[in-house]
Amino acid sequence: MEVIDRISEIIGTRVHRPREIAAYAAARERASTLMDIDGGLVVIAADHPARGSLGAGSEPFAMADRVDLLERLCVALGRPGVGGVLATADVLEELLLLGALEGKVVIGSMNRGGLAGTVFEMDDRFTGYDAAAIARMGFDGGKMLLRIDPEDPVTAATIEACARAITDLADRGLIAIVEPFISHRIDSRMRNDLSAEAMIRAISVTSGLGCTSAYTWLKVPVVPDMERVTAASTLPVLLLGGEVPDDPEQAFAAWRKALQLPNVKGIVAGRSLLYPADGDVAQAVDTAVSLL
Fold it and tell me: Which of 5, 82, 96, 234 has the least C-beta neighbours within 10 A?
């Protein structure tokens, strides 16, 4: 059945039977955890809308149509070799009701408070999942964004909150996936520094957060000199897909090269796979899987 045919059912559950969402979660077939992944992992990311980041490629509101987004997600999650999904509670619950999370690694997005384009963008408060809710839903871990702006004092609160979340997840045996950047406000807009030196510094700070790093994974973009970047830590690394690339072949080639590095264990990609320039989600996902 197409997603569009199930929307009234999803809305009906939300209105009349909200407790069923927890029941669906309890009955879901679980996947092997990230710690059991050996051959590489492809995770589809869809937590962008909750931060007000709705654009993909040249379309500023590409992710604003929820039915279209869910259809793309279901196509992606149905492709062979796709291991899991990363999203906020609203999206994960919709996918749960659609039956699309069976046997998948599921990562809950935790801090979405630094809304894109706002004056408080660096204040990345935890407005999504917490560790207790992730454990209660039977999911596998939580993801957090850690942007470090040397000139913005609210960075300190975000660092502290991420450290606390890492510890809370580890106490429950759950993976913490941290996406670290050194960031600066340029012409009133936040920009991430994608130099090798900046990424090395961000990774070094992140590796030391929390009471243990035993369950911490990194989510990092492919940048120049990835050998030096990944050598900054022994933590497992998942490659960040990022924006829809102008040259997909070049992007895939960069992923392929980075995946040869010893602590790189897979790919987390959202818009670049869900909204490819040619519109073929299945082909984009299959290409990403083939890189592993």
Answer: 5
Q: Which residues of the chain have pLDDT under 50?
A: none
From residue 230, how far is each of 85, 128, 142 by CA, in Å? Answer: 23, 28, 21
Only one residue has tokens 């990424």, namely 199
39-49 per-position pLDDT tens digit: 689 999 999 99
The answer to whether residues 272 and 241 touch, using CB atoms and an 8 Å cutoff, is yes
- The predicted model scores a pTM of 0.95
The whole-number pLDDT of residue 38 equals 64
Q: Where are the domains of the chain?
A: 3-9+38-290
As a whole number of Å, the CA-based R_g of the chain is 18
Contacts of 20 (CB under 8 A, 6+ apart): 13
What's the token pair of residue 78?
């149905």
Please report the pLDDT score of residue 19 as a whole number. Answer: 96
Q: Where are the beta strands (DSSP E) in the chain?
A: 41-46, 84-87, 105-109, 141-148, 175-186, 189-193, 216-221, 237-240, 264-269
Residue 65 has what pLDDT?
96
Question: CA-CA distance, 140 to 96, in Å (whole number)?
Answer: 14
Question: Residue 188's CB: how many other CB atoms inside 10 A?
Answer: 7
Q: If we measure between CA atoms, which residue out of 21, 28, 33 comes closest to residue 89?
A: 21
For residue 85, the one-letter residue type is V
Residue appearing with tokens 């590796």: 207
Residue 2: per-residue pLDDT? 85
